[in-house]
Amino acid sequence: MRTVDHADARSHTLRARAARDWALARRILRMLRFYFSEGRRVRKAYAACERRGRTYWVDARDGERR
């Protein structure tokens, strides 16, 4: 919330509120895009490791090296 909930004198104008709302909407859309693109890759790699009975390491490429 630090990016959209700070005290600012301009936040009372219609233009400033619209800019704040647009910035929030863009952030939410980026998060959704990441969830469906990178998140899908991570979920598939995790499921593959789980099927093989291996541990999924988040910080390794494809979660398998360690």
- The overall average pLDDT, rounded, is 81
Taking all Cα atoms into account, the compactness measure Rg is 19 Å
Specify the overall morphology.
rod-shaped
Flag low-confidence runs: none
Features:
single chain, 66 residues, mainly alpha, rod-shaped
What order do the helices and strands come in, and which of them pair?
Blueprint: H1 14-52
What would you say about this model in short?
This protein has 66 residues and is mainly alpha-helical. 59% of the residues lie in helices and 0% in strands. It contains one helix and no strands.
Q: Can you offer a commentary on this structure?
A:
The protein is an all-alpha fold. It has one domain. It has one helix and no strands. The chain starts with 13 loop residues before the first helix and ends in a 14-residue tail after the last helix. The mean pLDDT is 81.
